[in-house]
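Good morning,

Attaching, inline, the backbone tokens for the sequence recovery test we're adding to the shared suite. The designed sequence is right after.
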């Protein structure tokens, strides 16, 4: 099945993801983990969450899968540098996971379903490979808000939305997780819905997020595609990048995300 990931795995994109760990991105799952558990992390990217989950199950094992091999060497190197040995990484498609039924105690996906072709099929596959009594855990962005807005940042947001719609991405996926899970066969009494949030407002946090957005605009597959398809000019892209830099340097800058979260027991 075709993938519809609008972003690529360029360094500017991976920079955004490496901040994520189990505490800031999967806190809703952590109370349900036991040291012996096996975990599948689908759409693992650079592996920062995957490796942190492996620390939570020292007598267990964790497998991270990504649909392309591009980020996996970096994930393996990160695990090695941090001395985490109970984690492996391999290529796998969330629509057709390369594992037998009832393999894992936990299947986890973070900010993945918004980018893929068929979220219901993804839930079916995650349900298939999780053990009886096991849990599927998914978090996706629902909405975001930023202060102060500027013409360049709004233009960047509009460009991303335009490209994601063209790729049939699932915008505001966090609002639909329970619907997709139910269609995939999870009964309502086995589904727990919740929300989580991120806030970026300190100077370091603004540099992390705004600097990563600036980097994406200056050098990423998304920016190259926008230029190639005539969706934005080089001048417009540079104006967007400058707007993010101005936001980073504004001590009043504030950005918040609301994430939808779901736990589904088999």
């Amino acid at each position: 099945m075709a993938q519809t990931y609008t972003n690529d795995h360029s360094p500017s994109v991976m920079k955004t993801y490496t901040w994520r760990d189990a505490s800031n991105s999967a806190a809703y799952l952590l109370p349900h983990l036991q040291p012996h558990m096996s975990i599948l992390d689908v759409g693992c990217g650079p592996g920062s969450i995957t490796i942190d989950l492996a620390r939570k199950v020292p007598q267990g094992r964790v497998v991270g899968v990504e649909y392309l091999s591009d980020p996996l060497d970096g994930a393996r190197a990160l695990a090695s540098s941090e001395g985490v040995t109970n984690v492996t990484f391999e290529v796998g498609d969330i629509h057709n996971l390369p594992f037998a039924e009832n393999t894992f105690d936990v299947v986890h996906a973070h900010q993945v379903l918004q980018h893929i072709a068929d979220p219901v099929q993804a839930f079916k596959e995650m349900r298939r490979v999780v053990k009886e009594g096991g849990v599927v855990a998914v978090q996706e962005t629902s909405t975001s808000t930023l202060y102060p807005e500027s013409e360049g940042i709004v233009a960047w947001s509009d460009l991303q939305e335009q490209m994601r719609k063209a790729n049939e991405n699932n915008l505001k996926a966090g609002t639909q997780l329970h619907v997709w899970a139910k269609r995939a066969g999870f009964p309502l009494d086995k589904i727990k819905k919740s929300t989580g949030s991120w806030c970026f407002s300190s100077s370091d946090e603004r540099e992390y997020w705004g600097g990563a957005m600036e980097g994406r605009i200056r050098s990423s597959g998304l920016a190259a595609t926008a230029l190639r398809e005539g969706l934005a000019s080089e001048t417009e892209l540079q104006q967007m990048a400058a707007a993010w830099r101005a936001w980073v340097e504004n001590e009043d800058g504030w950005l918040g995300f609301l994430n939808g979260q779901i736990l589904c027991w088999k």
